[in-house]
């Protein structure tokens, strides 16, 4: 049974520099733990944060979890997210650049009362296959050629195989933190459907549409897991249209192939959220918590 901690809220909401609201209130969450992969870490080489995980995990000082923790004035916060994380890295260490990230579940305790989780993209192989889509030929389809054979889509098979793994992660959180409110995030739109923006992002329209539909398939699987495990599903995708990697700087929430961002200004991780994307994730989580 989930236990919700109730406290009186003070009046007044102001906006933080990161875009998430800061609530002037006594905390309603005592211990918050963030779990997940690079989209949870909101990888940014410009604002690295290393207090919870090695530098190679790519945690950003402005990631959504830190924004949520600040907005809720959480007294105890730990961020275990790490780029490249698979579901198995909840219970086994993950080797990263310049260090090892301990099993992410090690940050959970019996008193943890809020957990955010974003995982499954690497289990499905969707992140890795993006590199195979890059091409100098606008009508080529290297992604489809590589992973679809005889009508069998390997990424679809991977997504199906990832479902019980993600479900086991949610169940593992609940075993270790039985009173925690668990929020499972999906992945917001990075590549738009039907057409890409070749050559700015050198992926053909055919492969861009396929990638976009695999993202929807992955998110649909995550929604099923949330329903099956009685976790709360945080839909960041449906509110992200028009902010994909093909959009201009200041509009896009995820970077394209060129490893440079204007939010924040400087080097970026291709095909990952920028600060605007992290802000969107934070708003989505806070809305799910009824704090907007």
How does CATH name the architecture? 3-Layer(aba) Sandwich
Q: How many domains comprise the coordinates?
A: 1
Distance between the termini: 25 Å
CATH fold node name: Rossmann fold
Low-confidence stretches: 1-18
CATH class term: Alpha Beta
Give me the side-by-side strand order of the main sheet.
4-3-7-10-11
Overview of the molecule:
The chain is an alpha/beta fold and 292 residues long. It has a single domain (13-288), classed as SGNH hydrolase (Rossmann fold, 3-Layer(aba) Sandwich). The chain has 7 helices and 13 strands. The protein has helices at 38-41, 64-71, 126-133, 142-147, 154-176, 205-229, 275-288; strands spanning 13-15, 21-23, 31-36, 76-79, 94-96, 99-101, 114-118, 148-149, 152-153, 181-185, 232-234, 260-262, 265-267. The strands form 5 sheets. A 5-stranded parallel sheet has the order 4-3-7-10-11, with helices on both faces. It has a two-stranded antiparallel ribbon with strand order 1-2. The longest helix is centred in the C-terminal third of the chain and has 25 residues, at 205-229. It is globular, with a radius of gyration of 19 Å. The chain starts with 12 loop residues before the first strand and ends with a helix. The relative contact order is 0.16. Residues 1-18 have low confidence and may be disordered.
List keywords for this structure.
Rossmann fold, five-stranded parallel sheet, 15% strand, alpha/beta, 13 strands, two-stranded antiparallel ribbon, disordered N terminus, 292 residues, single chain, 7 helices
SSE blueprint and pairings:
Elements: E1 13-15, E2 21-23, E3 31-36, H1 38-41, H2 64-71, E4 76-79, E5 94-96, E6 99-101, E7 114-118, H3 126-133, H4 142-147, E8 148-149, E9 152-153, H5 154-176, E10 181-185, H6 205-229, E11 232-234, E12 260-262, E13 265-267, H7 275-288
Parallel strand pairs: 3-4, 3-7, 7-10, 10-11
Antiparallel strand pairs: 1-2, 5-6, 8-9, 12-13
Helix pairs in contact: 2-7, 5-6
């Amino acid at each position: 049974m989930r236990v919700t901690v109730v406290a009186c809220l003070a009046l007044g909401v102001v906006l933080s520099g990161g875009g998430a609201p800061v609530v002037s209130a006594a905390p309603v969450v005592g211990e918050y733990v963030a779990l997940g992969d690079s989209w949870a870490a909101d990888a940014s080489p410009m604002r690295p944060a290393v207090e919870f995980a090695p530098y190679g995990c790519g945690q950003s000082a402005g990631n959504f979890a830190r924004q949520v923790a600040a907005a809720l004035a959480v007294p105890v916060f730990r961020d275990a997210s790490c780029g490249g994380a698979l579901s198995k890295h909840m219970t086994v260490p993950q080797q990263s650049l310049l260090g090892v990230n301990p099993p992410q579940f090690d940050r959970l305790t019996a008193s943890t009362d809020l957990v955010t989780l974003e995982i499954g993209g690497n289990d499905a192989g969707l992140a890795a296959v993006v590199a195979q889509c890059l091409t100098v030929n606008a009508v080529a389809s290297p992604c489809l050629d590589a992973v679809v054979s005889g009508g069998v889509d390997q990424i679809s098979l991977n997504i199906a195989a990832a479902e019980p793994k993600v479900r086991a992660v949610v169940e593992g959180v609940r075993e270790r933190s039985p009173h925690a409110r668990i929020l499972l995030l999906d992945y917001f739109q990075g590549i738009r459907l039907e057409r890409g923006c070749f050559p700015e992002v050198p992926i053909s329209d055919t492969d861009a549409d396929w990638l976009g539909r695999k993202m929807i398939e992955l998110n649909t699987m995550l929604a099923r897991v949330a329903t099956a495990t009685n976790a709360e599903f945080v839909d960041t995708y449906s509110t992200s249209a028009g902010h994909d990697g093909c959009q201009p700087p200041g509009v896009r929430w995820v970077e394209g192939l060129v490893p440079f961002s204007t939010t924040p200004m400087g080097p970026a991780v291709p095909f990952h959220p920028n600060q605007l994307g992290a802000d969107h994730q934070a708003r989505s989580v806070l809305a799910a918590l009824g704090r907007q």
